[in-house]
Amino acid sequence: MTWQLYVTFGIFLGFSANLAVVNTGIIKILPFSSFLETSCSSPRWLIKKGRYEEAFRSLCKLRFTELQAARDLYATHVQFVQEKSIIAKGENPLSRFRQLFAVPRIRRANLAASTTLLAAGFCFWIPGDTGSSGRLAPLALFIFLFAAIYTPGEGPAVFVNALGSTILSLTFPWMRIAFTPTGAFGFYCGLNIVAFFMIFFWVPETKELTLEELDYVFAVPIAKFMKYQVKVAFPYFCERWILWRKDAKLSPLYDFSETRVVTYGHVSHSDADPHPGIKIDDV
């Protein structure tokens, strides 16, 4: 997401320049206040407040055409109507928590997010000896790089990352003694192999997609997505990157050319199905 990239870049610059302006916080506040008015308000927040004209103007700044802005305005409006109808039926926080696992679309999104974050937990290493001055520069470099990519990566689910890190920190000392360092890291290597297949079969691509398009992506059942990965995506990968056939083409799984509204696992679309062999009517 573009706004997360700019937020993370600001965090990166803040860490880099913190020592020079440690006692002069006003230096960072002035440019932030100056450019604050140039940013557009959240369209979803404006729709929630009933300010549809302002929401449409904000969407026009965020989309290439007014038609796309109108499409997203309508899709977001329908989502809020669905949410209000569910809340009006007496939904309580406990029942909404249960929907994290009971509603297929939300369950698939949780599965993809938790799989990715748990796999990322095995990519961290804490050095035992930090006294060497030769390690200071690369250590500082990767701290800055971590800050630069954290928000668009693991930032939205910090608590999941913290949970995985806690489990890893508590179990690794015991595993290092029982398995030896080689065996312990070999065990984690095996888990990374398992994580590779889990991500391949369970985690769809979400790059450069809007929230409305993400609703559609996670409305596709896992079984259909796995079938696509095995029968379409994997053969394309072999032809393009192993056999080096430049004419190989990947048939897309999702078609966003038609306006579709996905709310709480239900998909509304026209009778024409743009996905031959990949149907989502049984969501």
UniProtKB/TrEMBL annotation:
<feature type="transmembrane region" description="Helical">
    <location>
        <begin position="158"/>
        <end position="179"/>
    </location>
</feature>
<feature type="transmembrane region" description="Helical">
    <location>
        <begin position="185"/>
        <end position="203"/>
    </location>
</feature>
<dbReference type="Pfam" id="PF00083">
    <property type="entry name" value="Sugar_tr"/>
</dbReference>
<dbReference type="InterPro" id="IPR036259">
    <property type="entry name" value="MFS_trans_sf"/>
</dbReference>
<dbReference type="InterPro" id="IPR005828">
    <property type="entry name" value="MFS_sugar_transport-like"/>
</dbReference>
<dbReference type="GO" id="GO:0016020">
    <property type="term" value="C:membrane"/>
</dbReference>
<keyword id="KW-0472">Membrane</keyword>
<feature type="transmembrane region" description="Helical">
    <location>
        <begin position="133"/>
        <end position="151"/>
    </location>
</feature>
<protein>
    <submittedName>
        <fullName>Sugar transporter</fullName>
    </submittedName>
</protein>
<keyword id="KW-0813">Transport</keyword>
<keyword id="KW-0812">Transmembrane</keyword>
<keyword id="KW-1133">Transmembrane helix</keyword>
<dbReference type="InterPro" id="IPR050814">
    <property type="entry name" value="Myo-inositol_Transporter"/>
</dbReference>
<feature type="transmembrane region" description="Helical">
    <location>
        <begin position="109"/>
        <end position="127"/>
    </location>
</feature>
<keyword id="KW-0762">Sugar transport</keyword>
<dbReference type="GO" id="GO:0022857">
    <property type="term" value="F:transmembrane transporter activity"/>
</dbReference>
<feature type="transmembrane region" description="Helical">
    <location>
        <begin position="6"/>
        <end position="27"/>
    </location>
</feature>
